[in-house]
Amino acid sequence: MAPLPITEDYYMVLEVGQTAAPELIIRSYRRLALEVHPDRNAKHDSTAAFQLLGRAYETLKDESKRRAYDLIYPGIRRSSPFPQPTQTPRPPPASPSQPEALNEAAQIDALQKSKQERGARWGIKKNALSSSIFELQRNIRRLEQEIKNLNSVVAAEAATEAQKNSWGTWFLSPIYRKAEDSEEEKERKDRERQERKIEKDMKERRLELKKAELRKQEGLLIKAKEDVDAADMVENGKIRVLQQRIWARETKERQDREKTERDRLARIWKQQQEQREKRDREAAEALRRQHEEEQKRYEERTRESRQAYTSTCRHDGWWPKVQGRTACPECDEIWTYLLQCPRCSMKACPKCQSAIRRTRNATRPVRGNPSRVRTPSPTFYYDYD
Q1: pLDDT confidence of residue 306
Q2: How far apart are the C-alpha atoms of 290 and 263, rounded to whole Å?
Q3: In sequence order, what are the residues at sequence separation of 6 or more whose Cβ sits closer than 8 angstroms to the Cβ of residue 94?
Q4: Residues 120, 124, 130: CA angle, nearest 5 degrees
Q5: pTM greater than 0.70 (yes/no)
Q6: Which has the least CB within 10 A, 39, 53, 59, 287?
Q7: Residue 321's beta-bridge partner residues?
Q8: CA–CA dist 141, 135 (Å, integer)
């Protein structure tokens, strides 16, 4: 009998394109198998959909079967009432310039997704193994009950035979005579005993096989659980390493941001401090210039008032010393002391004092005999030491 022609679009069943790579077909099959599996899908056609998915996967994963299917695929595609889905483009490979945080987050997401898929597969396998173990345990209990019933029948026959051959039965046999079994009845009972013995042996062997199968299934369940736990432990360790790496990087970035902010605030504070110092210097300079201007104005007013007063003062009499190293107001020479006029408080060095007195004496009007006016010598000076 010729095989039935294929009319299903296996590429559409697996939700891949005709040029899909084998790895993409395997990933799509695993994803769809978890969705349409009868144990996880309550729809009435889930079994048929799962079988169709299996046929599509078995056809497309084998290169020779896939080439044979691709030869008839154009006709299937034209006769299909549904549009052909396009292949989902693969994401481009991560470039070296991509942020490391996104790469690590993608790795964590991939590990968590792998854990979820493994958990789903473990749930399916656990349900299957648990169902098998439950069925084996039920068969073992049934066989044990049947063997117990056979043992009860054998024990009852043995008790009956022992009672028949007991001393009391022999003693009362003259009184209570019972009909003896015929040869055919004896043969029938022997045959039944042999059948029960054979049945018991068969059931005991079946019981041992069921128990061995139960131990095997329980061992498979424990091993599968250990494998899942070991894989989860490995992936949890990887996730912790990635999370610690992300935490360390975020901590470093936060510290760098805090340091940058501190540096910025320090620069702002330094600029403000420089501006304050500049304003203080400008204010001090302005105040100093103001004081100098006021001092100049005061000295000018003092000089004017002194000149106005000294113009009428004769500067005669004894000029006392004013100790202190200072400049002469008249010639600006530095002296260790100055002489001060007792009338107008004018200060001058000894040289300027003699010049002032000569000038004042020369302009003063002469009283009495002019021939008696003494003209001081150009080298005249008072010796106050």
Answers
A1: 60
A2: 39
A3: 103, 106
A4: 135
A5: no
A6: 287
A7: 339
A8: 10
